[in-house]
Amino acid sequence: MEHIITVNNLHKAFDSEKVLKGVDLKVKPGQIFALLGTNGAGKTTMINILSTLLPHDKGEVNINGFDVKESPHQVRQSITLTGQFSALDEVLTGRENLRFIAKLSGLKSVEERVSQILEEVSMTKAADKRVKEYSGGMKRRIDIAMGLLADQDILFLDEPTTGLDPEARKEIYGLIEKLVSSGKTIFLTTQYLQEAEKLADYIAVLHNGKIAASGTFEELQALYQRQDEALDLEEIFFAVIEEEKEVRLGYDKTNFSTNRTTFEAPEEKW
Ligand SMILES: Nc1ncnc2c1ncn2[C@@H]1O[C@H](COP(=O)(O)OP(=O)(O)OP(=O)(O)O)[C@@H](O)[C@H]1O
């Protein structure tokens, strides 16, 4: 399968607020795909639609060969979602939390699977301590571990490092890299652009309800330059947003030059 996630012309409105206005994107299997956007751009809305939690108004979403509207059950069997807020019971230990979810999911060989996953997220040593004694990074690792129990192919991680200190963020990124090297596809949102720059195989910027720019970091660098100077992802992100504003309002460009001629997602690069 060339693309494990395909989104075509996706629209979503809440009452009169149009949040997604024709999103197109494609994700290759085994990639780390980072969706970036300012607060309120619609990143969580996207993740919720792609993971079948929220119905969309128009367009097609295909996950692992299944349409989210026609085959939500099969989509759910292909994915896991770790949201922005921890789903852990603080009174239980990490192991007990995992055991609970493993049993609820009807997994076989629960103890063996739980130990295996604890090892995978490097939490074997602290597994029998109560979650309330864990650091933020440890909690997040158990949160991600819950999603790994059933061994799905695609992981949606909504801001997996938000609220963590730099060291804990590094640990989570190490874990994400490990998961991808074991064959998972990761679709994540993040506010930490430097980390997305280092980690992501493919980056898309959601702005004004559409993908305003997308590509590998190197492709984005080639498209957005300032006087032939290479930009980092943060500078590219602001250039994209600034450029969109200029195009919508009809301003002249002043600060940034781009090699872009259109503002459509560069399909040929997928
Ligand atoms: N259930 C809902 N009902 C009404 N409006 C909603 C709902 N969910 C999201 N919105 C609105 O949709 C817009 C996009 O929200 P969303 O949470 O998807 O953005 P985001 O990019 O994830 O933001 P953040 O980075 O702050 O988490 C916001 O204006 C939000 O208020």
What does this protein structure show overall?
This protein has helices at residues 43-50, 72-78, 94-104, 110-120, 136-148, 166-181, 193-199, 217-223, 233-249; strands at 5-14, 17-27, 32-36, 58-63, 66-67, 79-82, 154-158, 185-189, 202-207, 210-215, 224-226, 229-230, 257-258. By secondary structure, it is an alpha/beta fold. It has one domain: 3-Layer(aba) Sandwich (Rossmann fold). The protein has a six-stranded mixed β-sheet, sandwiched between helices. Strands 2-1-4-5 form a four-stranded antiparallel β-sheet, with helices on one face. The protein has a three-stranded antiparallel β-sheet with strand order 12-11-13. A hairpin with a 2-residue loop joins strand 11 (224-226) and strand 12 (229-230). Helix 3 (94-104) crosses helix 4. The longest helix has 17 residues, at 233-249. It starts with a strand and ends in a 12-residue tail after the last strand. Adenosine-5'-triphosphate is lined by residues 14, 17, 19, 37, 39-45. Pfam families: ABC_tran. Keywords: ATP-binding, Nucleotide-binding, Transport. Residues 5-233 form the ABC transporter domain.
Search tags:
about 35% helix, binds adenosine-5'-triphosphate, about 270 residues, six-stranded mixed sheet, ATP binding, four-stranded antiparallel sheet, 9 helices, alpha/beta, Rossmann fold
Secondary structure category: alpha/beta
Dominant shape: globular
CATH architecture verdict: 3-Layer(aba) Sandwich
Main sheet strand line-up: 6-7-8-3-9-10
Order of helices and strands: EEEHEEHEHHHEHEHEEHEEHE
Mean pLDDT, to the nearest integer, reads 87
CATH class: Alpha Beta
Helix-residue proportion: 25-40%
- Rg to the nearest angstrom? 19 Å
CATH 4th-level superfamily = P-loop containing nucleotide triphosphate hydrolases
Listed once per kind, the bound small molecules are:
adenosine-5'-triphosphate
Query: What is the CATH topology descriptor?
Result: Rossmann fold
Question: Can you tell me the number of structural domains?
Answer: 1
Largest sheet, if any?
6 strands, mixed
What is the number of E strands? 13
Beta-strand share of residues: 15-25%
- Low-confidence runs of at least 5 consecutive residues: 251-257, 259-270
DSSP helix count?
Answer: 9
Terminal-residue CA separation: 13 Å
